[in-house]
Records
---
Amino acid sequence: MLMAKATRSTYRVSFRRRREGRTTYSKRIAMLKSGEARLVARKTSSGIIAQVVLYSPQGDRVVASARSAELEKHGLPRLKSLPAAYLVGYALAKRALPKGVKRAILDMGRRTPVASSFAFAVVKGAVDGGLEIPHNPAVFNDDRFSGKHIADYAKLLKESDEAAYRKKFSAYLAKGVSPESLPQLIQSIKGKL
């Protein structure tokens, strides 16, 4: 009995972005089929970026965008903190609403959802800013998103070890920001956005 010869490889190379670990196509297709705008929240090596993105066959179209680096002009040091993520989400909502986007779904990419993470801080900011985003309120931690946990830790550290306090909060102190007053600073910046 003769066996048929293989004429080509049976191995299939996956898409480039999947090989690089950047896209899960099954999740992306599910989001695109919903027809909703996507709130894309990403953490980079230097900050936090949030965008409202609409699908189009020619390529995704960014409707509104906000970055944590923009908060520096309002007095918040350039940090990747939960309060910064919250303000980025709030600023994004304020920019997306005038452009007709009232509802979006969260696109975290390949990150695992963890309660009180930066992505949920962005969502909380966007919800407080007026966007309608399906979410579970249990994933929000208002004390962490407002910076209260940082202020409490700064007070405790300042009382116990002044040198460690100055080292730990050097980015805040260099900008003339008292970490103990961070919740008040967050509220004042929120009023300016």
---
Amino acid sequence: MEVAEAIRARRAKRALSDRPIEDEKVAALVEAVRLAPSCFNNQPWRIVVCKGAEALASVKATLSKGNVWATRAPVIMIVAAKPPDDCQLSDKRDYFLFSTGLGIGQLVLRATELGLVAHPIAGYDPLKAKAAFGIPDEFVIITLVIVGYGGGDDALLSAKQRESEAVRPERKPVGENFFLDKWGNPFS
């Protein structure tokens, strides 16, 4: 699959199968993040890959009610970083979030290429996750990445979530958030 194909095919699906993910595919996702760019190659991300029954039960216990669909996932990654582990520049530019986002972006595209869904979420209790996994206080849990094979039963989805499975959400027109040569001049 070409990168452009993976970009077009990528979707944040929620109807997942509980089919286990092959170890080599999990390793490929780890490698995708490992090779991602970061400010001065600092690689600020720290990721707990939850695959075992006990670890999965613990991370699933942190999910919000709206993310009950994620309880079918055979792999959940806890993504954390802390500001001093990446560039801290003038004007409060802490790159740890940006660098980590680049890594997860690569993971999502690699997952798509491998026939997997990798769905980053914000709906979880970060304090509960930190306590359950021994994550130090100075780290920020940025996201959980729900990983699985798509095409599972949609019984755990809300009506709105079922609807979003069928059609890719609309994107803003390019000129609304891309500008040419100066702010507010729509890119066309």
---
Amino acid sequence: MPHSSASDLPPGTGSSLQQEIRQALAEPDAVLANLKITRCHFLLAQALQRTLGAGAGANFHSWAVWGSRKAGVTIRQEDLDQARRDGSVVGGCVGAVVGWGCGWLLGWATHWLPGAALLGAGCGLAVGRLIIRHSRQRSAELILAGNRTVLEDIGLQTARFVEWLVQIPAAPTTELADFLAGLPSEPPQSTLLRRAFAHYFEAYQAKDAAAKQEATYLGNCFAVWHEHVRLEPFIKGAMPVIIRRCVTRRLLQFEVGSLSLAVAQDVPATGVFGQLAAADSPQKAADLYLLRSVGGRAFGKEAAHAGTAARDWTAIKERMRYVFALFRTFHAEPQVCLAPYEPAQLAAIQAGQYPGGQWR
């Protein structure tokens, strides 16, 4: 079960965080790798929270903790039984329709058509189970690869950002270019990641609590958009076309602390941290336009919750519409910043061991 703190953990500096990240990325055991990645996101979330200052709210890694925990369910194949049931239902229904249609096209007598449908349903059920078994194995491999990609892609840069600000605590805005120059240069990811850390730097410098919170939120949005662009092939590869809507509706539930949420349901209309301030610079206007282009109604001046549910998680605009609304609604929710495991369990994971007690 998640806990409210892990105060006995070392605070972590940029260089020590980079070492932790590299150890997690090099872990050969799939389950332990996921546990280490989840722990690294928690350490990064804490480090970035301290760097941005009190009142900044949840950051990208605060959310990545729960995304990584959810990834662990598939990596450990704990959702296989539910997936098999869903695949059997879908395969059986499709098979029944195909069987009936084939019987009709072949000119079978009407009283034989139910038999054709039954035969088709049986074949479809068997095929559906085979597809699900293969796809869940493939999904586990792809999700672990995506899990590693996010930590390597953003986690190492966050650790570098924290270390940079520790070394230059009074960094003027002009020096931000020095940090941004070290980010990946491949478009379009480079643009999104640059905007993410530019907003985090804005949050770091902000004295007003509302401005700090908004800048952190904008940084989160650009970071998660960057992440989902990078994860696009992993997400599509992990969800076979025939069952994408079924998986979105039935399997994509997740927990944030004690909160239980599902991407197929609208983000709950509670706890919105407030309106976004009007654009006061050409750069901010451009940023808001970019985010609105992919987040739609979830990124209006006032957050809209109706219609944020996703029907097909492989569609990036549906993902961003949901995630932007989720981030905005729960930005100041304390449970988002909870530790994913007990302190003793986190220590076991750091030592390269499976944790004891309840952790799944």
